[in-house]
Amino acid sequence: MLARGYSLTELLIALGAGAMLISACATVGGRFIGKNVALDQKLIVAEESQLLRRHIQQQLRRAGYQHVPVADRLTHSNQSFQAAWAIGQHADETSNSCVLFAYDLNKNGILDEQTPNERFGFRWHDHALEARIDGRGCNENGWQDLTSPDIRVSLFQLSYDPLTPAIIDVTLALQYHQQADSIKVSRFSVALPNYLGLWHE
């Protein structure tokens, strides 16, 4: 009995079917990878948004705090920490996109302007959320980026209602580079427990 091989036609049909199968797998795999990358970007933005939200809330809740012994609380004033509160903006950004504040980090009862500097803040500048360094003003250079280079801040704004001035409302919008479908907008309120007329208008 003679062994019979495949004909040229059969080989061409098998190669064509194999190529179609590989092409279909590559297409499905490419779509899956593309969707996976988009999902990863959304998760990165959501995680960064959550971390920034917690950090902003934690820091703003401390605004105006001054360590005073219990016996002196009724007679002591924390004017220096209260006077350090301000909302403004960098000249290149929208209004109410920078907040400056102070709190008694080392609990010595004095507003320290040297190390450790107890003047803090957040601002929106150049598509990044930045933290205040060494008591710099909203328009000064030298602030530290809080957001990663892959994240673009498209909005950071603070507001308050004159009827409830001890509560500040914050809006924060982040996106992954230029990916419009990865935008995460967070709106949250922060109670200011050390509020004693912080707003100076």
What would a concise description of this structure say?
The chain has 201 residues and is an alpha+beta fold.
Relevant terms:
201 residues; alpha+beta; 3-stranded antiparallel β-sheet; 2 helices; 8 strands; 30% helix; Prepilin_Pept-dep_B_prd; Cleavage protein
Cross-sheet strand order for the largest sheet:
1-2-3-4-5
Which residue ranges are poorly predicted, with pLDDT under 50 across at least 5 consecutive positions? none
- Main beta sheet, described? 5 strands, antiparallel
Quickly count the helices. 2
Strand content: 25-35%
Number of domain units: 1
**Mean pLDDT across all residues, rounded?**
84
Helix percent band: 25-40%
Count of β-strands: 8
Globally, the shape reads: rod-shaped
- Taken in chain order, the helices and strands follow as HHEEEEEEEE
Instruction: Give me the Rg, rounded.
Output: 28 Å
Protein name: Cleavage protein
